[in-house]
Amino acid sequence: MSHAHSMSCREMAACLSDYLDGELQAGLRALIDEHRGDCPPCEAFIRTLARTVEAVRAQPREPLSAGLKKSLADSLRRARRP
Amino acid sequence: MDPAAGDKRPGDGDRALAEALIAGRPEAFEPFVERFGPLILSFGRRMCGQRADAEEVLQETLMKAYLSLKDLRDPGALKTWVYRVAANACLKMRRRGRSEPKREISLEELLPRAGEEGGPPQIADWSDVPLDRLLQGELKTKLEEAILSLPKDYRIVLVLRDQEGLGTRETAEILGISETMAKVRLHRARLALRKALEGYVS
Fold it and tell me: Which of B43, B48, B33 is nearest to B83 (CA)?
């Protein structure tokens, strides 16, 4: 990655999750926005990291059957304190 | 189960549910299972990998969380309470299962290396691969395997944050670690998954 930026590629890589989560302060966010516009490898890195997070978030939940729900509620009822 | 009329705050529904359970009202059990059953089953499946283990985690979690509710200081924090019990159940389950020594993920291994003759690294941009493709067939399996191959201390942060949708603060509270540590582990877990997917997608 290029070193001709006000923020190095390595410095930037360390805070990319905060960047993607919108938890970075405005000044740092602006530096990354500027950096990625000038640095194609970093742009590809950020985009593929974002895609990875999207894929993890989009994984479907496990189905829970009505039978198992009933069995769980019955167990709790039996354990109910008098 | 409905909170009192007026402004609803986050946790109000859980507060009413926790109070009903603590009071021993039998009609609270179904809503408790409805609320947390699907969440903890998915959490257990993602942490342990096996459906049977996830069901065991779910049963143990709901029972232990219920029986220990008297120790819950803030009934509005029911969700954090249940996930904390579930996290302990999962970590215990992993210890009982195959050997999984503690290890750290090095940031160095996950960042791009310089290209030939010190030039910029070549990074394939596969971000246009449709989500559907990442969530089906071989890639779905690879993603699940990559998540399960993360060290458990990293995997649990990833699962709580990115799959269960909890915030940094809640995640840190559940695991008894600092928010900074939760952020570090999440970032490295995500970077490790990106690298694992890169090998298959590009």
Answer: B43
Asked if B132 has any chain A CB less than 8 Å from its own CB, the reply is no
Rounded to two decimals, the ipTM of the complex is 0.89
The C-alpha atoms of residue B87 and residue B89 are separated, in whole angstroms, by 5
pLDDT in tens, B19-66: 999 998 989 999 999 999 999 999 999 999 999 999 999 999 999 999
- The string of DSSP codes covering B24-61 is T-GGGHHHHHHHHHHHHHHHHHHHHS-HHHHHHHHHHH
CA A8 to chain centre: 22
**Residue B98 in contact with residue B48, Cβ under 8 Å?**
no
* Half-sphere exposure for A52 (CA within 13 Å, toward CB): 33
pTM tops 0.90, yes or no: no
Encode A35-76 in three state secondary structure.
Answer: HHHHCHHHHHHHHHHHHHHHHHHCCCCCCCCHHHHHHHHHHH
Please give the residue of chain A at the shortest CA–CA distance from B160.
A57
Going by C-alpha positions, the residue among B40, B163, A4, A20 that lies closest to residue B32 is B40
CA distance B19 to chain A (A): 14
| C-alpha B101: how far from chain center | 19
Any chain B CB within 8 A of the CB of A79? yes
